[in-house]
Each structure stands twice: as C-alpha cells, then as structure tokens.
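Morning F.,

Quick status update on the modeling queue. The single chain you submitted on Monday has been processed. Sequence for confirmation:
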Amino acid sequence: MTGNPKELWRSFCAAQLVAADSVGLFKIEPNGGVAVQSTGGRRNRPLLQRSPQMETAIIREAGKLWVDWNAGTRRYDGLIYLMFWPDTDQEVVPLYVGKAETAGRSDGVFSANLVNLERDRSKFARWGDGYAYHIGDLSACVLPGHPPEKKTAKYNSWASRLFKEVPSECPCLKREVRFWVKAWPRDAVGIWPEFGPTRLPFLEYLMIGVSSAAFPDTLLNREGQNRDRGRIDET
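Structure tokens below.
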C-alpha cells in the first residue's frame, strides 16, 4: 500500500475541516505578544496563556467523551489534537500531533487528564499548566522564573520553533499558531482511507508518520516519525 504524504495529509485536513474548525492556541495581547499569567501562591511562576477559544474547544470535545463514558456507549476513543501553522491556500503545516485517551491507565476509570476541565487547568487534556504538561513545560522554556531542571530538550525545541526569542518576559510568536481538537469516534475513517475505521492510537501514529514525511522540517513530534520522509510504504 502506497500513498503520497502531502496528498494524504491535505485530504484528511480537508475532510476534518481542520483549518476551518481551528482556533488560536494562545491568547494574544494588543501589542501582539502572547499573554502571560501568574499561578499565584507560594510557588508563584509565570505561564503562557491559552486562548479562551482553545479552552472552549477542549472543554466542548472532552464533554462529548464524558457523556459517552457515562452512557456506556463507548463511541469515542478520546481526543485527537493538532498544533499547526496556517499557510497560504489553507495549507495546514503540522507542528505537533497528539492524543488524550478517554480511558485512564487503570481499566474502567475515566482519564484524570480529562476530569473537571472547567475548574482545573493543571492537566487540561495534556495542555495543562502543571509541569509534565504542554503549557507548563513550554512556559518553563519560554519564560524566566522557572527552575532550570524544568527546561527539557523537548520543550526547548518547541520554544525555539514557535517564539522569536527565548527566554523572554514578553514572548512573541514567529507565526500564528493554531489548534484543532476533535473527539474521535472509534468507527471513523482516519488519514489513510484504505485502513477504514481507525482507532485513536493508530490514528495518532499514522498522522505523525504521514506529517513527518510531508513536512519533515516543521514537525516537533519525536516519536513515530517516518524515517523515509519521501515516501510511505506499508505492506
């Protein structure tokens, strides 16, 4: 089975309305910089702010998972999400592909990453303010005031890819960063139509492989990248 990576990527993004249904990832100040907030309390530290639209999108899609879980219908596997740069002609240039599965590590338990999102932003479907989550760890690399040991190689890569200068008290993006998220139905067809219905873990794997082949210079995912970036073969 063969496929042109860019054609697969573009077809998937068009079918899923990725560009149209996306929102800005960060809250942007009138001066064009990314808004920064403080955690407050004894362990006060600065944090990059998610946009209200991004938070609304996460809460909306995670709400579908919660209703599905409580009803016992198990229609959804979890959330699939994408951080990307918008380009000309609605091109979606991928920066990071990820997922947040409905089921937690313990069987029969709804994931802690998806609980109480309206009140608790510490985990927030992997985009939380806490360390070991995207916003918390990215903030540690972008903003001064974080312990040196919290500055990881992964998020240093994110910081240098997204921001003009780091560290900075007034962080500015190189380009607009968009965010797309969807509650993924387990019977939905994924990025490679020949596979038919695609479960969430396999969807993430395929999206990373296809996008790394189509956009080898932008994708920030470290695991699952396709080594042969010019072509994807599956036998």
